[in-house]
Amino acid sequence: MPEALLTIRLTPRAARERIEPRADGGFAARVTAPPVEGAANDALCRLVAKAAGVAPSRVEVVRGHRGRDKVVRVEGADEASVRAAIGASFPRTRR
Questions:
Q1: Cα dihedral 23, 80, 46, 92 sign
Q2: Which of the listed residues 2, 52, 55, 94 has the most CB atoms within 10 Å of its CB?
Q3: Pairing of strands 3-11, 69-75
Q4: What is the C-alpha to C-alpha distance for residues 20 and 8, in angstroms, rounded to an integer?
């Protein structure tokens, strides 16, 4: 079964939820959940699952449970298709 490993820098307690590519090849994610009892990690998994078009049970944080820098595994999809899906779900905005 294909799987993708994504490096994500997470910002909890954001005003809105969003995930976007970073210049270093990883992703930057913002979730509204606080970093309490895994709530931010759960919100991140739901956000990635929605963007990648897979079930939330197929997404898990495999490294960085307590830090801001995380490695997330997406089962059932290859890395190229996950990256393309995230880019399509959350296109870059000009700031």
A1: positive
A2: 52
A3: antiparallel
A4: 9
Residues 17-71: tens digit of each pLDDT = 999 988 898 999 999 999 999 999 999 999 999 999 999 999 999 999 999 999 9
pTM of the model: 0.90
Copy the structure tokens of residue 51: 């963007």
> Hey, what are 30's tokens?
């913002």
Alpha-carbon distance of 95 to 45, in angstroms, equals: 26
